[in-house]
Each structure stands twice: as structure tokens, then as C-alpha cells.
Amino acid sequence: MSAGDSTLAREVIHYIDTSIQQQRPELSFTPNTPRVPEAEIGFYRGITFNLKFGTANEASEIFQQIRALYEENNVENEFAVFSKVTGSGPDFSVFFPARDAVDF
Question: Mean pLDDT, to the nearest integer, of 34-38?
């Protein structure tokens, strides 16, 4: 196969999803003493949410409630929330750091 031949891409790729997302620190949670220090993060577990039309505010409220529970209970696990600005990707994405695949 020569360089630039798109045959392989058509055979391999089923669907491409793209979006621009912004971090939402007011919905995210970082404890004072994270369970996994930043220098030791090797993996992220990602969860994506595709919302019903018009429910972004309700979803934000749910993330705020989860953050409050983490704060009240001194949970050492952190998570980062991102929301879609534009594109065809998920409306919200949440990422949880870990040292390695076994750490999840």
C-alpha cells in the first residue's frame, strides 16, 4: 500500500466522532490529597454522557450533587468533567485518573 492510500482507513474505521469540549472545574472534584498524585497518573477511565435534548442544566445539577458528596465524605478519588461546546461527540465526559489499568 502506498502512502496516502485511504483503502485501509475505509476498512478499519466504522465511525468518527468529533467535538470541542471545555473543562468544567465547578463540576469536577480534586481532593486536597488525591489518591493518585499527578506524577503517577498513567491511565484515565472515561465515561461519556449523551443527554436528552434540553437536559444539560439538570445534568450539571447531578454532577454538582456528586461533587458535594465527594467533598462531604472526603473521598480521595478525583474526577474531571468536560462539556461539549460544539461537535457530534458526547455532551459530557468524566475522567477518573489511575496509576495503571489494575488501579481501576
Answer: 94
